[in-house]
Amino acid sequence: EEEMNEALVMAQAMEFVEKYKNKLDFVIHQGGKNLSGGQRQRLSIARALVKQPEILVLDDSTSALDYATDARLRRAIANSNKKMTTLIVSQRAASILHADKVIVLHDGKMVGYGPHKELIETCDIYQEIYYSQFQKEAVND
């Protein structure tokens, strides 16, 4: 139960799980119809985290989360004491800003590779994606 609680906290799911009358014993309807998209995503991430994987693949798994929850989730994973390589597949630039390395794909081909600071200076496609999501003058790179 301790491992489940730790995974739920890391996945930013504990806040809504604790609101249910039966907490961890609440019933999830078929297809998760009694949960929001973000709640389903966070529970799926918690299920993966409780297994303590060596490699965690988050394939657009935060698309239904607001930016603040996404940031808290990524920070919790990064700050965990678990030895885990995390691969993040995302169209949301904010989700990969602090990644050690970013691979930029365009039309199925790699057009950029490196950390954000390098890509923002050298990769036109990355710049286009990034500045379409953030105002150029409002962001400190």
Layout of SSEs?
Layout: H1 2-10, H2 14-17, H3 37-50, E1 55-59, H4 67-79, E2 85-89, E3 102-106, E4 109-114, H5 116-122, H6 124-133
Parallel strand pairs: 1-2
Antiparallel strand pairs: 3-4
Spatial order of strands in the largest sheet: 1-2
Question: Can you give the mean pLDDT?
Answer: 89
Query: Structural class given helices, strands, pairing?
Result: alpha+beta
Ends: how far apart? 41 Å
Number of helical segments with 4 or more residues: 6
User: Approximately how much beta-strand content do the residues carry?
Assistant: 5-15%
Using only C-alpha atoms, the radius of gyration works out to 17 Å
Quick take:
The protein is α+β, with helices and mostly antiparallel strands and 141 residues long. 40% of the residues lie in helices and 15% in strands.
